[in-house]
Specification:
The complex is a heterodimer of chains A (about 325) and B (about 190).
Chain A: H1 8-32, E1 34-35, E2 38-39, H2 42-51, H3 53-66, H4 85-106, H5 110-118, H6 122-127, H7 130-137, H8 144-167, H9 180-202, H10 209-238, H11 242-248, H12 257-285, H13 294-320
Helix pairs in contact in A: 1-2, 1-3, 1-8, 1-9, 1-13, 2-4, 2-9, 3-4, 4-8, 8-9, 9-10, 9-13, 10-12, 12-13
Chain B: E1 12-16, H1 26-35, E2 44-53, E3 56-65, H2 73-77, E4 83-85, E5 91-93, H3 103-107, E6 114-115, E7 122-123, H4 129-132, H5 139-143, E8 149-153, H6 160-167, E9 170-171, E10 183-186
Parallel strand pairs in B: 1-10
Antiparallel strand pairs in B: 1-8, 2-3, 4-5, 6-7, 9-10
Classes of the chains: A mainly alpha (about 325), B alpha+beta (about 190).
Chain lengths: ~325, ~190
């Protein structure tokens, strides 16, 4: 089989892009849900907003670096090819990055905005037109919910695009099933949620029970959805045509078997699910009281992130080893 | 009034009579020389396959290259349009627009594309379009000593290619990809 042409830069991008989409999605949900006319989970929403733009920006930079001709990346934006997932995805990435930056801005407090602006060297600051200056001083906190709603479809788009990029290639049977896009989407949203669990627990302000309830119920739902995608992916694949069956052999006895079952399914999906379910048991059963054990929550969050990375690693490399010959 | 000859559109394709192939690789060398293909990458190659058990052995050689598909997935996935298809079916890469994302390499079911280590863009068989446009044959076709390859216009009933396809049984490789490959292997 041929050597892979997409390697770790692409794995990292797929992970980081998905992570940002998940962060934005979870944060937007936390913003959107209201209690007494205010965001119900303001600290979660704020953490998500502060973190969301960065992984995707780093990921996009890696994408450019992976090009044979990085200095030509702009050409993508001067030829719109609607049948190319990469062309559509590039526009989505740009739209999402700008939107997530605007969303971040809306979550900054006035003193934070001002101290950020104070960091701009005086020479440049003096040149900024008064109109833009006023704009930067604007309190955008009222737009948070609107930005959150506007961002839902775009964040979902970025999350699902990472899967579509691979799935829309009929030459690679490992990818070319109608389940890969959803698998990547749910994995992306789950890793964003897990990152928020980790971020919220590292926060100086002690975490509230209702915040953890929100994050846990979301992550458990997403992991279960992911399981409902991964298992049919394997079972239907085994019952599919020879090319698909041969492709699946990569993770069923082939070189990626251990990585897939141990590192992705075991440590990266089922183990965090078990930890979260165990922690969440009092809420599900309605018996006992829900405690937070930061150590367990941090472990579960970290493992979900690890599993998300493994999924992308397996798919990028195993997929390229498959074909029709 | 002089009658104008109406030229029907051309559709170039290739017939491969693999049974005649002796694996001399003259086509590979001719292509390398003609197109200055860098070391380590190839626009065409010969697949070898051994089957059977001693002493009943059989070895077959299948010349391979870009299939210049009717609906090429490499062209579809290209984000800049650098991968494109001429009216006559030849699939080309416009090197000036290629950003080297390698998506087309992944999207090709025939693994016919490569990343050029010198230009960092994508390269592939061009059916020697520069020669075809001068009325010559692709280098691999011209050089083949056992006349495995027949290049021609599918829409020209007088062409040898057309006649071979009309009279012989043939197959295309992996039609299930939906790409509509245009390399016809005689049976």
């Amino acid at each position: 089989m041929r050597e892979p042409v997409w390697e770790f830069l692409i794995v990292n991008y797929l992970f980081l892009g998905g992570l940002s989409a998940g962060l934005y999605f979870a944060s937007a949900l936390a913003t959107w849900i209201q209690e007494d006319g205010r965001s119900a989970y303001p600290r979660i929403a704020r953490w998500g907003a502060l973190l969301a733009p960065w992984p995707v920006s780093l990921g996009s930079a890696l994408l450019v670096l992976d090009l044979g001709k990085p200095m030509r990346f702009w050409k993508i934006f001067f030829h719109f090819r609607w049948r190319s997932p990469m062309s559509i995805g590039s526009w989505l990435l740009v739209a999402f990055t700008f939107l997530s930056l605007a969303y971040l801005w809306s979550w900054l407090e006035q003193d934070e905005r001002q101290s950020l602006q104070a960091r701009i060297p005086g020479k440049i600051r003096k040149r900024i037109p008064a109109r833009v200056q006023r704009w930067l001083d604007l309190d955008a906190s009222l737009w948070r919910r609107n930005l959150a709603m506007l961002g839902f479809p775009i964040a979902v788009g970025v999350g699902i695009y990472t899967g579509v990029l691979l799935g829309a290639v009929q030459a690679r049977p490992f990818w070319n099933t109608n389940l890969v896009a959803q698998m990547f989407l749910f994995s992306a949203l789950s890793s964003g949620t897990a990152a928020l669990v980790v971020a919220r627990l590292m926060d100086r302000e002690p975490v509230e029970l209702k915040e953890m309830r929100f994050l846990y119920s979301m992550d458990i739902t997403l992991i279960v959805l992911e399981l409902f995608i991964v298992l049919p992916y394997l079972i239907h694949g085994e019952l599919s045509s020879l090319a698909v069956k041969e492709a699946l052999a990569q993770v069923l006895g082939g070189p990626f078997t251990i990585v897939f079952w141990l590192f992705f399914m075991g440590i990266g999906l089922l183990l965090p699910l078990a930890i979260e379910l165990y922690e969440f048991k009092p809420v599900i059963l309605g018996k006992g009281t829900f405690h937070i054990q930061p150590r367990w929550a941090l472990t579960a969050g970290g493992l979900v992130l690890f599993g998300g990375y493994m999924l992308r690693y397996i798919f990028v490399f195993a997929g390229q080893a498959t074909g029709f010959r | 009034m002089a009658t104008k000859s109406v030229k029907t559109a051309q559709r170039y394709a290739m017939v491969i009579d693999a049974k005649k192939c002796i694996n001399c690789k003259a086509c590979v060398v001719a292509c390398k020389a003609e197109n200055q293909v860098p070391l380590g990458v190839f626009r065409n190659w010969i697949d070898e396959e051994t089957s059977g058990e001693y002493p009943h052995l059989r070895m077959s050689f299948d010349p391979e290259q870009c299939h210049h598909c009717a609906d090429p997935s490499c062209v579809r996935v290209c984000p800049t349009g650098a991968s494109w298809q001429r009216e006559d079916g030849i699939v080309l890469v416009n090197e000036d627009d290629c950003i080297g994302c390698k998506y087309c390499i992944i999207a090709c079911p025939y693994d016919a594309r490569y990343h050029n280590p010198e230009t960092h863009t994508v390269g592939k068989c061009t059916f020697c379009s520069h020669r075809v446009d001068r009325g010559e044959l692709p280098a691999c076709v011209e050089t083949c000593p056992s006349k495995v390859r027949v290049f021609g216009d599918l829409n020209d009933p007088k062409s040898q290619l057309h006649q071979l396809l009309a009279t012989r049984r043939y197959e295309v490789k992996n039609p299930q990809t939906g790409n509509g490959p245009q390399l016809y292997y005689l049976l």
